[in-house]
């Protein structure tokens, strides 16, 4: 594949749309996770008394469900990414791939 083909692929509207949507989705989910995690770390650092206080009047403290919530949230965000990638971005990926293959085949490349 020569430089002109690579340039055409990089400037292909479908390819650019696919890259843009994947980037937006990835950064959005990353920002959500970072916000939640950094918030929890700030809570640990600056309000230990709250985290050590009882959740239900018993031995369970607020730190336990909040910590578990962060772990569960990470699995949920992975599921959200997988769902969106498999149901929406894969179609766009296939369309972009067909156009890229057409560009590659123009000069007899496979």
UniProtKB/TrEMBL annotation:
<dbReference type="InterPro" id="IPR007436">
    <property type="entry name" value="DUF485"/>
</dbReference>
<dbReference type="InterPro" id="IPR052959">
    <property type="entry name" value="Inner_membrane_assoc"/>
</dbReference>
<keyword id="KW-0472">Membrane</keyword>
<keyword id="KW-0812">Transmembrane</keyword>
<feature type="transmembrane region" description="Helical">
    <location>
        <begin position="24"/>
        <end position="44"/>
    </location>
</feature>
<feature type="transmembrane region" description="Helical">
    <location>
        <begin position="64"/>
        <end position="84"/>
    </location>
</feature>
<dbReference type="GO" id="GO:0005886">
    <property type="term" value="C:plasma membrane"/>
</dbReference>
<protein>
    <submittedName>
        <fullName>DUF485 domain-containing protein</fullName>
    </submittedName>
</protein>
<dbReference type="Pfam" id="PF04341">
    <property type="entry name" value="DUF485"/>
</dbReference>
<keyword id="KW-1133">Transmembrane helix</keyword>
């Amino acid at each position: 594949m020569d430089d002109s083909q690579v340039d055409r692929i990089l400037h292909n509207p479908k390819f650019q749309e696919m890259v843009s949507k994947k980037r937006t989705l990835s950064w959005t989910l990353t920002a959500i996770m970072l916000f939640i995690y950094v918030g929890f770390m700030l809570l640990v650092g600056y309000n230990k008394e709250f985290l050590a206080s009882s959740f239900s009047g018993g031995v369970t403290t607020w730190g336990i469900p909040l910590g578990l919530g962060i772990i569960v949230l990470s699995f949920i965000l992975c599921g959200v990414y997988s769902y969106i990638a498999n149901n929406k971005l894969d179609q766009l990926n296939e369309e972009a791939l067909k156009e890229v293959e057409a560009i590659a085949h123009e000069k007899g490349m496979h």
